[in-house]
Backbone:
Protein backbone atom coordinates (compact mmCIF):
# COMPACT_ATOMS: atom_id res chain seq x y z
CA UNK A 1 0.00 0.00 0.00
CA UNK A 2 1.21 3.51 -0.83
CA UNK A 3 2.62 5.37 2.15
CA UNK A 4 1.01 8.81 2.09
CA UNK A 5 2.78 11.83 3.57
CA UNK A 6 1.40 13.29 6.79
CA UNK A 7 0.31 16.91 6.96
CA UNK A 8 2.77 18.86 9.12
CA UNK A 9 1.35 19.89 12.46
CA UNK A 10 -0.28 23.25 13.04
CA UNK A 11 -0.10 22.67 16.79
CA UNK A 12 1.87 25.10 18.92
CA UNK A 13 1.63 23.05 22.10
CA UNK A 14 4.67 23.53 24.32
CA UNK A 15 5.75 26.75 22.60
CA UNK A 16 5.85 30.28 23.95
CA UNK A 17 4.84 33.22 21.75
CA UNK A 18 5.30 36.94 22.19
CA UNK A 19 2.67 39.11 20.49
CA UNK A 20 3.17 42.88 20.51
CA UNK A 21 0.21 45.18 19.95
CA UNK A 22 -1.93 42.44 21.50
CA UNK A 23 -4.47 44.61 23.31
CA UNK A 24 -6.75 45.16 20.29
CA UNK A 25 -7.32 44.61 16.60
CA UNK A 26 -5.07 42.31 14.59
CA UNK A 27 -2.63 41.80 17.47
CA UNK A 28 -5.41 40.63 19.75
CA UNK A 29 -6.63 38.27 17.04
CA UNK A 30 -3.11 36.87 16.61
CA UNK A 31 -2.80 36.28 20.35
CA UNK A 32 -6.15 34.47 20.43
CA UNK A 33 -5.21 32.32 17.43
CA UNK A 34 -1.84 31.27 18.82
CA UNK A 35 -3.34 30.47 22.22
CA UNK A 36 -6.04 28.37 20.56
CA UNK A 37 -3.29 26.46 18.74
CA UNK A 38 -1.73 25.56 22.08
CA UNK A 39 0.92 28.22 22.67
CA UNK A 40 1.46 30.11 25.88
CA UNK A 41 1.08 33.70 24.69
CA UNK A 42 2.77 36.72 26.25
CA UNK A 43 0.53 39.60 25.23
CA UNK A 44 2.43 42.90 25.08
CA UNK A 45 1.24 46.48 24.62
CA UNK A 46 1.44 49.85 26.35
CA UNK A 47 -1.99 49.89 27.97
CA UNK A 48 -2.41 47.58 30.99
CA UNK A 49 -6.22 47.58 31.16
CA UNK A 50 -6.87 46.37 27.62
CA UNK A 51 -4.06 43.84 27.92
CA UNK A 52 -5.63 42.36 31.03
CA UNK A 53 -8.97 42.12 29.22
CA UNK A 54 -7.32 40.19 26.38
CA UNK A 55 -5.53 37.82 28.76
CA UNK A 56 -8.71 37.25 30.77
CA UNK A 57 -10.67 36.45 27.60
CA UNK A 58 -8.03 33.92 26.52
CA UNK A 59 -7.99 32.35 29.99
CA UNK A 60 -11.79 32.10 29.94
CA UNK A 61 -11.40 29.74 26.97
CA UNK A 62 -9.11 27.51 29.02
CA UNK A 63 -6.02 28.70 27.17
CA UNK A 64 -2.73 30.16 28.41
CA UNK A 65 -1.67 33.81 28.31
CA UNK A 66 -0.11 36.56 30.38
CA UNK A 67 0.18 40.33 30.09
CA UNK A 68 3.36 42.34 29.56
CA UNK A 69 3.17 46.13 29.64
CA UNK A 70 5.72 47.27 27.08
CA UNK A 71 6.49 50.39 25.07
CA UNK A 72 8.01 48.83 21.98
CA UNK A 73 9.70 52.09 21.02
CA UNK A 74 11.82 51.80 24.19
CA UNK A 75 14.58 49.63 22.75
CA UNK A 76 16.22 49.09 26.12
CA UNK A 77 13.01 47.68 27.56
CA UNK A 78 12.47 45.63 24.42
CA UNK A 79 15.94 44.09 24.57
CA UNK A 80 15.43 43.26 28.25
CA UNK A 81 12.35 41.20 27.41
CA UNK A 82 14.42 38.88 25.23
CA UNK A 83 17.19 38.71 27.82
CA UNK A 84 14.74 37.48 30.45
CA UNK A 85 12.42 35.19 28.48
CA UNK A 86 12.64 32.49 25.81
CA UNK A 87 10.26 32.70 22.88
CA UNK A 88 9.70 30.24 20.05
CA UNK A 89 7.42 32.58 18.13
CA UNK A 90 7.46 36.38 17.95
CA UNK A 91 4.61 38.31 16.30
CA UNK A 92 5.02 42.05 15.85
CA UNK A 93 1.62 43.65 15.44
CA UNK A 94 2.39 47.05 16.93
CA UNK A 95 1.86 49.80 14.39
CA UNK A 96 1.17 53.47 13.90
CA UNK A 97 -0.44 55.43 11.08
CA UNK A 98 -0.54 59.20 10.66
CA UNK A 99 -1.87 59.86 7.20
CA UNK A 100 -1.53 63.15 5.33
CA UNK A 101 -0.48 64.47 1.93
CA UNK A 102 3.29 64.13 1.63
CA UNK A 103 3.82 67.89 1.39
CA UNK A 104 2.01 68.31 4.72
CA UNK A 105 3.91 65.62 6.66
CA UNK A 106 5.52 66.97 9.80
CA UNK A 107 8.91 65.82 11.01
CA UNK A 108 7.25 64.76 14.26
CA UNK A 109 4.75 62.50 12.47
CA UNK A 110 7.45 61.08 10.19
CA UNK A 111 9.67 60.21 13.15
CA UNK A 112 6.82 58.73 15.20
CA UNK A 113 5.66 56.39 12.44
CA UNK A 114 9.20 55.37 11.52
CA UNK A 115 10.02 54.70 15.18
CA UNK A 116 7.23 52.17 15.66
CA UNK A 117 6.74 50.67 12.20
CA UNK A 118 10.36 50.24 11.17
CA UNK A 119 12.92 51.09 13.88
CA UNK A 120 11.31 49.01 16.63
CA UNK A 121 10.44 46.24 14.15
CA UNK A 122 14.08 46.04 13.10
CA UNK A 123 15.47 45.75 16.60
CA UNK A 124 12.68 43.46 17.84
CA UNK A 125 13.71 41.08 15.04
CA UNK A 126 17.40 41.40 15.87
CA UNK A 127 16.86 40.87 19.60
CA UNK A 128 14.62 37.85 18.96
CA UNK A 129 17.08 36.26 16.52
CA UNK A 130 20.05 36.89 18.80
CA UNK A 131 18.24 35.17 21.68
CA UNK A 132 17.28 32.19 19.51
CA UNK A 133 20.81 31.86 18.13
CA UNK A 134 22.24 32.01 21.63
CA UNK A 135 20.08 29.06 22.67
CA UNK A 136 20.65 27.18 19.40
CA UNK A 137 16.88 27.14 18.85
CA UNK A 138 14.82 27.45 15.68
CA UNK A 139 12.05 30.02 15.69
CA UNK A 140 9.50 32.02 13.74
CA UNK A 141 9.35 35.82 13.61
CA UNK A 142 6.23 37.29 12.01
CA UNK A 143 5.57 40.93 11.22
CA UNK A 144 2.14 42.34 10.50
CA UNK A 145 3.02 44.43 7.47
CA UNK A 146 0.48 45.67 4.92
CA UNK A 147 -0.50 45.51 1.29
CA UNK A 148 0.90 49.06 1.40
CA UNK A 149 4.33 47.46 1.61
CA UNK A 150 3.81 46.49 -2.05
CA UNK A 151 1.80 49.35 -3.54
CA UNK A 152 1.21 53.05 -2.92
CA UNK A 153 -1.79 54.71 -1.31
CA UNK A 154 -3.50 58.05 -0.98
CA UNK A 155 -1.97 60.20 1.80
CA UNK A 156 0.22 57.25 2.82
CA UNK A 157 3.75 58.20 1.79
CA UNK A 158 5.19 57.78 5.28
CA UNK A 159 3.21 54.65 6.10
CA UNK A 160 4.13 53.06 2.76
CA UNK A 161 7.78 53.98 3.29
CA UNK A 162 7.82 52.08 6.59
CA UNK A 163 6.08 49.01 5.18
CA UNK A 164 8.18 48.86 2.00
CA UNK A 165 11.22 49.16 4.25
CA UNK A 166 9.91 46.37 6.47
CA UNK A 167 9.51 44.05 3.49
CA UNK A 168 13.11 44.60 2.37
CA UNK A 169 14.38 44.21 5.92
CA UNK A 170 12.64 40.85 6.30
CA UNK A 171 14.11 39.47 3.07
CA UNK A 172 17.63 40.37 4.17
CA UNK A 173 17.15 38.95 7.65
CA UNK A 174 15.72 35.72 6.20
CA UNK A 175 18.92 35.23 4.19
CA UNK A 176 21.09 35.93 7.23
CA UNK A 177 19.24 33.72 9.70
CA UNK A 178 18.16 30.86 7.45
CA UNK A 179 21.20 28.70 8.33
CA UNK A 180 20.11 28.91 11.99
CA UNK A 181 16.57 27.75 11.13
CA UNK A 182 15.19 31.10 12.23
CA UNK A 183 12.37 32.03 9.89
CA UNK A 184 11.04 35.55 9.37
CA UNK A 185 8.00 36.49 7.28
CA UNK A 186 5.33 39.14 6.91
CA UNK A 187 1.56 39.09 6.75
CA UNK A 188 0.22 41.82 4.46
CA UNK A 189 -3.44 42.60 5.08
CA UNK A 190 -5.69 44.90 3.14
CA UNK A 191 -7.90 47.27 5.13
CA UNK A 192 -9.14 45.39 8.21
CA UNK A 193 -12.06 46.45 10.36
CA UNK A 194 -10.11 47.54 13.46
CA UNK A 195 -9.82 50.78 15.48
CA UNK A 196 -6.76 51.68 13.37
CA UNK A 197 -8.58 51.03 10.11
CA UNK A 198 -11.68 52.96 11.15
CA UNK A 199 -10.07 56.34 10.47
CA UNK A 200 -10.11 55.51 6.75
CA UNK A 201 -13.20 53.29 6.50
CA UNK A 202 -15.41 56.02 7.98
CA UNK A 203 -14.67 58.37 5.04
CA UNK A 204 -17.23 57.51 2.30
CA UNK A 205 -15.06 58.30 -0.72
CA UNK A 206 -12.12 56.35 0.76
CA UNK A 207 -14.42 53.42 1.60
CA UNK A 208 -15.55 53.34 -2.05
CA UNK A 209 -11.92 53.44 -3.24
CA UNK A 210 -11.12 50.51 -0.96
CA UNK A 211 -14.08 48.39 -1.99
CA UNK A 212 -13.38 49.04 -5.67
CA UNK A 213 -9.79 47.81 -5.23
CA UNK A 214 -10.58 44.66 -3.23
CA UNK A 215 -11.54 42.04 -5.80
CA UNK A 216 -13.44 39.92 -3.28
CA UNK A 217 -15.67 42.91 -2.63
CA UNK A 218 -15.39 43.31 1.14
CA UNK A 219 -13.22 44.85 3.81
CA UNK A 220 -11.16 42.36 5.84
CA UNK A 221 -11.97 41.14 9.32
CA UNK A 222 -9.51 40.21 12.07
CA UNK A 223 -10.52 36.56 11.61
CA UNK A 224 -9.05 36.68 8.10
CA UNK A 225 -5.58 37.04 9.63
CA UNK A 226 -5.79 34.39 12.33
CA UNK A 227 -5.21 31.27 10.25
CA UNK A 228 -2.21 32.85 8.54
CA UNK A 229 -0.42 33.63 11.80
CA UNK A 230 -0.89 30.06 13.06
CA UNK A 231 0.44 28.71 9.75
CA UNK A 232 3.56 30.89 9.83
CA UNK A 233 4.17 30.12 13.51
CA UNK A 234 3.87 26.36 13.10
CA UNK A 235 5.77 23.51 11.48
CA UNK A 236 3.31 23.64 8.60
CA UNK A 237 5.38 26.53 7.19
CA UNK A 238 8.80 25.00 7.91
CA UNK A 239 10.15 25.90 4.45
CA UNK A 240 8.72 29.44 4.38
CA UNK A 241 11.00 32.40 5.11
CA UNK A 242 11.54 35.82 3.59
CA UNK A 243 8.00 35.73 2.25
CA UNK A 244 5.05 38.09 2.30
CA UNK A 245 1.64 36.47 2.75
CA UNK A 246 -0.87 38.68 0.98
CA UNK A 247 -4.30 38.78 2.65
CA UNK A 248 -5.63 41.58 0.50
CA UNK A 249 -8.68 40.24 -1.30
CA UNK A 250 -6.81 40.53 -4.59
CA UNK A 251 -5.85 44.21 -4.21
CA UNK A 252 -2.27 43.64 -5.40
CA UNK A 253 -3.26 41.19 -8.15
CA UNK A 254 -3.48 44.05 -10.69
Residues:
Amino acid sequence: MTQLPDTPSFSLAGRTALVTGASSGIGQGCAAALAAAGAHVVCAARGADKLQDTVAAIAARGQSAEALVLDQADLGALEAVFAKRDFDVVVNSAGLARHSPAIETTVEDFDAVMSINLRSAYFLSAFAAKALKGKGKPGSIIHISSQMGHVGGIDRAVYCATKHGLEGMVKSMAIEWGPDQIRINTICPTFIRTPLGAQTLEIPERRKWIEDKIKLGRVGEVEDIMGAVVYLASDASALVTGSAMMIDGGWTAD
User: Anything to note?
Assistant: The mean pLDDT is 96. The chain is about 45% helix and 15% strand. Strands lie at 16-20, 40-45, 65-69, 89-92, 139-144, 182-189, 244-247. The chain has one domain: 16-192+221-247.
